[in-house]
Design a protein that fits this description.
There is one protein chain. With about 80 residues, this protein is of the alpha+beta class. It has a single domain, classed as Double Stranded RNA Binding Domain (2-Layer Sandwich), CATH 3.30.160.20. A three-stranded antiparallel β-sheet has the order 1-2-3, covered by helices on one side. A hairpin with a 4-residue loop joins strand 2 and strand 3. The longest helix is centred in the middle third of the chain and has 18 residues. It is globular.
């Protein structure tokens, strides 16, 4: 998976949160630009599942790579409540 993203020269922002799913807590990883999300019982599992989902998505829709940009450092990382 990382090879597909690295070959494309892209990186992406993700949001990670915990949710209740069928009587257990799971980690959900989401990327807004692509609209891809996946989950797992652990954070590592959720990230691995997400990477595989992004790989499959970009293989099916290679034109979507244009929505991802390569950035050395994010402009801002924060959380806001309204």
């Amino acid at each position: 998976m990382e090879e597909v993203i690295q070959e494309a020269g892209v990186s992406m922002n993700i949001a990670v949160r915990e949710e209740q799913m069928e009587d257990k807590r799971v980690f959900v990883v989401n990327n807004e630009e692509l609209g891809v999300a996946d989950f797992g019982d652990t954070l590592d599992q959720a990230l691995e599942n997400f990477k595989n989902s992004v790989k499959d998505y970009l293989l099916a829709y290679p034109e979507k790579k244009k929505f991802l940009q390569k950035e050395e450092e994010p402009l801002l990382v924060s959380r806001i409540s309204v």
